[in-house]
Structures are given as structure tokens and as C-alpha cells.
């Protein structure tokens, strides 16, 4: 087996489907994209990219990734880049999570996870708990959501301090 057999390249159809999915996720029509980019990305051309009927240049891939606010490698491969340059930390109001967990099942699951995390780390401040980016990834897996959604949810629920 050669090393080239171990590399799986994305198919044109997959990239085309990702382009369409990125656009529809933002609830944009082809004409909306053309209008928002002031014609830099034409609706007819974008439709051709999304059908896989037209070749994408590197310049256009970068332009589309920038417009959709995703890394180029995610646009091409479909894999989310979960690496962070530094292990960023956030702080959660642990006491509030436990109290709110008495009446909210989702927050109860979060509070249970945070309690286990505190046990593992021997962190018994009891008021707040620092969580790492990797902890947020685990919470996202538990919630079956993207990490950005989890961060937003924690903030909306008033649990994320920083």
C-alpha cells in the first residue's frame, strides 16, 4: 500500500454540496450572495459551482470561504478545524448552573458534567469553574451541537462569565 492510497481527497460533488449548504444555512439565495458581494460572486456562476458544473479557482475558493466566514480547509474538506492556537479558558457560574439545573434538564446535564470535572481537577471553589476549550468541545458533543452554539447557549443562559 502506498501513502497516496491513505489520502482521501474530497470529491467535486461534496465541495459543491458544501457550498450550497453554507449558503442555505445563512438563508441566502443565489441573488442575495451576488447582491451582498456587489457582483464579485455572480449568482449564475455560484449556481454552477454549487452544481459542480464549473471549476473553482483558488482565488474563488478563498473569496467564498471569506464570504461564508469559514476556513478554506473546512470549505474544501468539510471538517471543522477544532484546533485552537492556545488552550482558551472560559468561566462558568457553577453555582448558578447547579441551581438552574433543578428546573432545566439541559442545564442539569451540564451541571452534572461540571461537577465531575470539578472532582477530576480537585477544584472545589464551588462558585465558578474554569473550563478549557477542550471541555467546551466535550459539552458540544454531549449536546450534539457545534461549539459556537454551545458558547452562545451558555451566554444566553447567563452561565458564561467570560
UniProtKB/TrEMBL annotation:
GO BP of this protein: negative regulation of DNA-templated transcription
SUPFAM superfamilies xrefs: lambda repressor-like DNA-binding domains (SSF47413)
SMART domains per the UniProt record, alphabetical: HTH_XRE
Boundaries of every HTH cro/C1-type domain copy: 19-75
One Pfam family named in its UniProt record: HTH_3
GO molecular function, one term: DNA binding
Protein's recorded name: Unannotated protein
Species the sequence originates in: freshwater metagenome
Amino acid at each position: 500500500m502506498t501513502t497516496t492510497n491513505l489520502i482521501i481527497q474530497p470529491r467535486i460533488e461534496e465541495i459543491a454540496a458544501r457550498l450550497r449548504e453554507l449558503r442555505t444555512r445563512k438563508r441566502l439565495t443565489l441573488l442575495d450572495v451576488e447582491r451582498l458581494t456587489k457582483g464579485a460572486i455572480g449568482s449564475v456562476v455560484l449556481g454552477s459551482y454549487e452544481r459542480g458544473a464549473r471549476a473553482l479557482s483558488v482565488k474563488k475558493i478563498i473569496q467564498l470561504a471569506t464570504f461564508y466566514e469559514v476556513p478554506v480547509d473546512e470549505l474544501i474538506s468539510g471538517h471543522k478545524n477544532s484546533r485552537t492556537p492556545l488552550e482558551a479558558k472560559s468561566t462558568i457560574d457553577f453555582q448558578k448552573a447547579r441551581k438552574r439545573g433543578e428546573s432545566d434538564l439541559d442545564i442539569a446535564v451540564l451541571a452534572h458534567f461540571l461537577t465531575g470535572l470539578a472532582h477530576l481537577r480537585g477544584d472545589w471553589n464551588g462558585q465558578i469553574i474554569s473550563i478549557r476549550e477542550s471541555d467546551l468541545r466535550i459539552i458540544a458533543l454531549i449536546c450534539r451541537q457545534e461549539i459556537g452554539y454551545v458558547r452562545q447557549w451558555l451566554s444566553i443562559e447567563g452561565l458564561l462569565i467570560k
